[in-house]
TrEMBL record:
This is DUF4407 domain-containing protein. The chain crosses the membrane at residues 28-51, 57-74, 264-287. InterPro entries: DUF4407. The keyword Protein biosynthesis does not apply. Keywords: Coiled coil, Membrane, Transmembrane, Transmembrane helix. Residues 196-241 form a coiled coil. It comes from Flavobacterium arundinis. The keyword RNA-binding does not apply. It holds the Pfam family DUF4407.
């Protein structure tokens, strides 16, 4: 039962292969088993690759099965259409397009399985890339908000600087009127005279201005600091919102790129393994000698070809013979005087009718 199933997978003609020896049947059963297991590996590889895309086991399994069925059908077609020739190079030339197609299929199948085999190494590469992306993202977001933050800080510093400047001015006026009262500077007279009163008045006016400025600027500074806090919160929110996108940077394309950054030799040997598996049915059929099945298949095809050539030749003879007969028949009819006189009579009647119609039409116009 299993042997018959593998023979079906090989694409061999059942009527011919079951009439062959047991050894010939085993050869095609082996070819069919290779075709089947290659398709199963394609199913597994495609399912894993699509799982990284859909994140759904059922969707990945379904579309992987479709892909595996396609590979199975292609391999079965490739193997079943190779015909054994009398010369090896004729067979090789015939099989070259099929070998190229098998190589492409092998590369496509091997890549997802390479990704699975080297998953830990790929995850390490992806982690490093994610960290670099996260750092770069923070810098980009910070640069985006930096202008507003710098402007806010400059305005806040300007408000604080105005208060500090005014405080220095008030302190200077305070020192001026105190030293005037002590007689150490100014008029150098001890006591609170008119100059002292004038300087004290300037100090008090400046102090009032300082209090008003401090109150106004303190409110503005509080607003600016609140705005700075809001800007910083927006910056952090932007970074947090973009972080999940970076965390999901592990799709199929990212993993393929990460695989390419690993040492190429192990990946290359795995691809060679799948290449050997995929091309093995074709190579086996090319290298194997012409067997009983090949002779019977060639005999069946030649019988059909000969029958077609005979039928075409007979149709050509029939056409040529019929044409010659009709030529002779119409040649004899052409010399028949009775037929000639009859056609002449009918032609005269037709001309007379046309003349009568024309005459009646002309009379109606007049």
């Amino acid at each position: 039962m299993l042997k018959r199933f593998f023979i079906t997978c090989s694409g061999a003609d059942k009527d011919l292969i079951y009439s062959c020896s047991n050894g010939e049947q085993n050869k095609y059963a082996g070819i069919g088993a290779t075709v089947l297991f290659t398709a199963l590996m394609a199913w597994i590889a495609a399912s894993y690759a699509l799982y990284t895309v859909f994140d759904s086991v059922y969707a990945a399994t379904f579309f992987g099965f479709v892909w595996g069925s396609l590979i199975f059908n292609l391999d079965r077609f490739i193997v079943s259409t190779i015909r054994k020739r009398d010369r090896f190079w004729q067979e090789f030339t015939q099989a070259t397009p099929r070998i190229v197609l098998a190589m492409i299929i092998a590369i496509v199948i091997s890549k997802p399985l390479e990704i699975k085999i080297f998953q830990k190494e790929i995850d390490t590469v992806l982690l490093k890339e994610k960290n670099e992306l996260a750092i770069a993202n923070k810098k980009q977001v910070a640069n985006y908000f930096q202008g507003d933050l710098d402007k806010n800080k400059a305005e806040t510093d300007s408000l604080k600087s105005a208060i500090t400047k005014k405080e220095k001015e008030v302190n200077a006026l305070y020192g001026t009127y105190i030293t005037e009262a002590e007689g150490t500077k100014g008029t150098m007279k001890l006591g609170k005279g008119p100059v002292y009163a004038e300087k004290r008045q300037k100090h008090d006016a400046a102090l009032a201005e300082l209090e008003a400025l401090r109150k106004t600027n303190t409110e503005k500074i509080a607003a600016k600091e609140k705005q700075a806090t809001t800007l910083q919160a927006d910056l952090d929110k932007k970074v947090n919102e973009s972080q999940p996108i970076i965390d999901k940077f592990d799709g199929l394309m990212a993993r393929i790129n990460a695989l390419n950054k690993l040492p190429w030799l192990p990946s290359f040997f795995i691809m060679l393994l799948f290449l050997a598996i995929e091309t093995s049915p074709i190579i086996a059929k090319l290298l194997s000698p012409k067997g009983e099945y090949d002779f019977k298949l060639e005999d069946s095809e030649m019988a059909i070809k000969t029958n077609l050539e005979q039928n075409n030749y007979q149709r050509e003879l029939l056409k040529t013979t019929d044409a010659g007969i009709y030529d002779d028949v119409y040649a004899e009819i052409r010399n028949d005087r009775e037929l000639y006189n009859y056609k002449k009579k009918k032609a005269i009647e037709m001309l007379e009718m046309q003349a009568d119609r024309f005459s009646e039409k002309q009379k109606g116009v007049m």
